[in-house]
UniProtKB/TrEMBL annotation:
The chain crosses the membrane at residues 42-60, 72-91, 97-121. It is found in: Membrane. This is DUF423 domain-containing protein. Keywords: Membrane, Transmembrane, Transmembrane helix. It holds the Pfam family DUF423. Belongs to the UPF0382 family.
Length: 126
């Protein structure tokens, strides 16, 4: 579990930097300032939760193979896909219905962090 979420966190951090650079340099002047802000929100949450995946890897290493930590990692990854990538698609295409997907990613983020909390709460380690 440690290795899996460390790799997923690292690749998502890389993607976040690459997509952020693309947005800053490739989309400026191509999409509206409002849509560029939407895109940047996707990048911000992408990076924060990529770092969260790395933190979850460290928690997994500390707590062991705990099913709640495993669930947290997958929920955070799903959140990145639904939240950030829906914002990327919305901002680039202008298809407003894509914004309806974003809250599902937010709920996935919340559930993932709740799983981390519960794993820590239930842990026997001090």
């Amino acid at each position: 579990m440690f290795r899996r979420f460390l790799m997923l966190g690292s690749i998502n951090a890389l993607l976040s930097v690459a997509l952020g650079a693309f947005g800053a340099h490739g989309l400026k002047g191509v999409i509206s300032d409002e849509m560029l802000t939407v895109y940047q929100t996707g990048v911000q949450y992408h990076m924060i939760h990529a770092l969260g995946l790395i933190a979850i890897a460290l928690v997994a290493d500390r707590l062991g193979n705990h099913r709640l930590v495993n669930a947290a990692g997958w929920l955070i990854l799903i959140g990145i896909i639904l939240f950030s990538f829906s914002l990327y698609a919305l901002s680039i295409t202008g298809v407003k219905i894509l914004g309806a997907i974003t809250p599902f990613g937010g709920v996935s983020f919340l559930a993932g962090w709740a799983c981390v909390f519960l794993a820590a709460f239930k842990s026997k380690r001090s």
